[in-house]
Amino acid sequence: MNSTQLRCFLTSANTLSFTEAADQLYLTQQAVSRNIINLERELGAVLFVRDTRSLRLTDAGAYYRSYFTNADYDFHSVCTEVEDMYSRLAERFRIGYSRWIDPLGQIDEGVASFRAGHPGTHFSGRQYHNDTLFSELSKGELDVVLMSEAQISWIREFERAPIAHEDICFYAPPYVEGDTPDPNLWGLPILLNAAWDWTYFEWRQMVLKEMDHLDVTSDRVVSLPNIQSIYAELTLGDCVVIIDDRFGNVSGFKNMRRFHIDSSTRVFALWDRQNETPLIGDFVKHLQGAFGYNAAKPTA
User: Fold this and answer.
1) Domain finish residue from 70, 86, 102
2) Helices 3-15 and 75-86: crossing angle, nearest 10°?
3) With contact defined as beta carbons under 8 Å apart, do 214 and 169 qualify?
4) Tens digit of pLDDT for each residue in 77-136?
5) pTM score, two decimals?
6) In this structure, are residues 185 and 220 in contact, taking their beta carbons and an 8 Å threshold?
7) CA-based, 20 to 30 A from 18: which of 62, 154, 192, 228?
8) Residue 142 falls within a domain, yes or no?
9) Mean pLDDT rounded to a whole number for the chain
10) If phi over 0 gives left and psi between -120 and 50 gives alpha, with beta otherwise, what is residue 272?
């Protein structure tokens, strides 16, 4: 018996639906069903009457539901006892970051506050190329991946949830005047950072996708090796850059003109619903609360 089996049983007993229990626990319906079957084997009792139209508790199921949830022996106490009995190892929680997200920037504030509430859990985080992130997620080597919405439009096999609105900004040379950028500036070269093992073509396609989302066009996209060279080019030439100022690998270009772009782009968390790590749902909800996420785009 383990805490995942108990969570699956009690949530199913409360909802009388394996599907709804799976949604609440961030698992697949198959995983919930499998855990309950294993629990029934260990208890030596059938907990549910299953048919094609409904799910209801057996007498044994009703007894164990009451036993595990009564006031003197609540669910959390049961989970604690079971975990202490069957595993003395600390839980692990492994986070993967897209190369477009700075793990030491604002995103770290939400992760750090979640870590503070789970002192017995070992946390680890790594930045990867996107292909590696998806591969590690599929293999169960990562529990959650964090990346920009612009990078996941073609991913279908993972669950996802938005956790925060990005702050997409348009940076222009310091001579640009007014409260809004001159529309003619959108025709200037768009700078991008072709870094790590990304090719110029891959970065260019990603930037063009973001530009299309923002209804921005440019005849030229220029590849530069790093953020410093982008800053130098901005101070010297007629060019612009579009970047996420909230979670991206930049803390702001000094002495540059910055304009906020009307964009609803978000940062997402991705996970595999076959992963039974119980912290995934709590982590996603925590980040949404930490970053004040709501479905509507926040006003400036």
Assistant:
1) 86
2) 150
3) no
4) 656 665 555 443 347 899 999 877 888 888 999 999 999 988 888 899 988 877 888 889
5) 0.64
6) no
7) 154
8) yes
9) 79
10) beta
